[in-house]
């Protein structure tokens, strides 16, 4: 099984290893599962999640693949790069979720990007349980040296506190 290249993917170390690119409202917060008006997580071992607020909250990690021990030759062979993320809403407030993952060259220029349309969860029409988003990059050409993983969102009612989307269990893996 390939190792997860993201550090602190579920908030066990609060916000360590994450660059807070947007930190609106009451800012990012780490909470314990399942949280107020929340759902239990479907994977063993995940006990925390990151919660967003009433203005946009985004956080990012940029992974240096050479520092992680991959060689230029391994990376130029275009190994499959798989990204996964889990998100959910509260049962009492709607929220939006978004993510952007970019494969970057040595100058941190984008080689390929995965940016699905933002998702809005409405507790009146959705159970707001944990949902997974996954994507595998392939045939992206040579030059991969960094991966940028960014995700987050906010609530839809602008309520004071942490009523926005919740994220956890994020991963970036490379099959070499």
From TrEMBL:
**UniProt xrefs under SMART domains:** FBA
The record, for InterPro entries, names:
F-box-assoc_dom, F-box_only, Galactose-bd-like_sf
Listed transmembrane segments: none
Q: Which GO terms describe its cellular component?
A: cytoplasm; SCF ubiquitin ligase complex
Under the heading SUPFAM superfamilies, the entry gives: Galactose-binding domain-like
For molecular function, the Gene Ontology terms on record are: ubiquitin protein ligase activity
- FBA domain spans which residues? 1-176
Task: List the GO biological process terms.
Answer: ERAD pathway; glycoprotein catabolic process; SCF-dependent proteasomal ubiquitin-dependent protein catabolic process
PANTHER family membership: F-BOX ONLY PROTEIN 2, F-BOX ONLY PROTEIN 6-LIKE PROTEIN
Designated name of the protein: F-box protein 2
- Organism name: Seriola lalandi dorsalis
């Amino acid at each position: 099984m390939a190792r997860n290249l993201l550090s602190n993917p579920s908030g066990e170390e609060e916000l360590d290893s994450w660059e807070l690119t947007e930190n609106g409202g009451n800012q990012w917060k780490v909470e314990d599962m399942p949280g107020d008006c929340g759902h239990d997580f479907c994977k063993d071992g995940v006990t925390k999640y990151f919660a967003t607020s009433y203005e946009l909250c985004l956080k990012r990690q940029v992974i240096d693949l050479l520092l992680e021990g991959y060689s230029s030759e391994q990376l130029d062979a275009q190994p499959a790069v798989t990204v996964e993320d889990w998100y959910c809403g509260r049962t009492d407030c709607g929220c939006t979720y978004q993510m952007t993952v970019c494969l970057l060259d040595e100058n941190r220029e984008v080689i390929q990007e995965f940016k699905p349309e933002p998702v809005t969860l409405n507790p009146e029409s959705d159970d707001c349980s944990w949902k997974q988003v996954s994507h595998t990059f392939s045939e992206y050409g040579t030059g991969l040296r960094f991966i940028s993983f960014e995700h987050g969102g906010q609530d839809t009612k602008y309520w004071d506190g942490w009523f926005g989307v919740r994220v956890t269990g994020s991963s970036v893996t490379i099959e070499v």
